[in-house]
Design a protein that fits this description.
CATH architecture of the largest domain: 3-Layer(bba) Sandwich
Radius of gyration: 22 Å
Helix content: 10-25%
Distance between the termini: 30 Å
Structural class: alpha/beta
Strand content: 15-25%
CATH superfamily of the largest domain: FAD/NAD(P)-binding domain
Number of strands: 8
Strand order of the largest sheet: 3-2-1-8
């Protein structure tokens, strides 16, 4: 959020130069998803000296694996337009440490290879190494809503995944407080958030008026078919 929106506003003419520029720097993007690809493309266009994208997961296959049959959505290796511009992608690695120079600026990252086990991702002994990094963007997956601030102050109950608990009307465990979207569902698509927002509005309307003509798009327990 500190990098991509302001870079876009430069293209829109709001600023002459971005607040954070990759020009002439060794850039590392932590996160292998679409947001990470956006950071890769932006860094290239700003004139980065090098661009490296890190992913903790193994490199996906190029064809549908047997454990992901149709009609499930397979996890496949893909090359976006941003990746076609260049750069390097490293899979099955985790960042151990940020290394700084004498002025307190980041100069490198210490990485370690990982393997996935029943206990999660475990480091592979003897695989630590450093890569140059003068600008690091964090484009990692959604790990739950921010607890500090509003959620802690409200005192809403959280489930085992750290998301906000709500009932069939999207009502949280705190009277008069409703929740929709990623905060209750977890990481998902905008279409789910839109549907939940409309449904939560109906729940709030019923709470206030004891009745509602607003449509309920989906219950909070609704999930994708696959």
């Amino acid at each position: 959020m500190e990098y991509l929106p302001l870079a876009n506003r430069v293209q829109e003419g709001d600023y002459d130069t971005p607040a954070i520029s990759a020009r002439g720097k060794h850039v590392v993007v932590i996160g292998g998803g679409d947001t990470g690809a956006d950071c890769v493309g932006t860094a290239h266009r700003q004139g980065a000296a090098s661009v490296t994208q890190l992913e903790i997961m193994p490199k996906p296959p190029t064809t549908r694996p047997e454990n992901q049959p149709w009609p499930t959505m397979p996890m496949l290796y893909k090359v976006t337009s941003a990746h076609e511009e260049g750069g390097k992608r490293i899979y099955s690695v985790n960042t151990v440490e940020f290394l700084g120079d004498d002025d307190g600026n980041v100069r490198a990252l210490k990485l370690v290879e990982v393997r996935r086990t029943d206990r999660g991702f475990e480091p592979v002994e003897g695989t630590e190494r450093e890569i140059p990094a003068e600008l690091v963007t964090l484009a990692m997956g959604f790990v739950g809503p921010q607890k500090e601030g509003m959620l802690d102050q409200l005192g809403v109950e959280l489930d085992g995944r750290g998301n906000v608990v709500r009932d069939a009307d999207y009502h949280t465990t705190v009277d008069g407080v409703f929740c929709a979207g990623d905060m209750g569902r977890g990481q998902s698509l905008i279409v789910w958030a839109i549907a939940e927002g409309r449904s939560a509005a109906a729940g709030a309307d019923r709470y206030l008026t004891q009745d509602s003509a607003l449509p309920v798009a989906i219950p909070p327990t609704e999930r994708p078919l696959v």
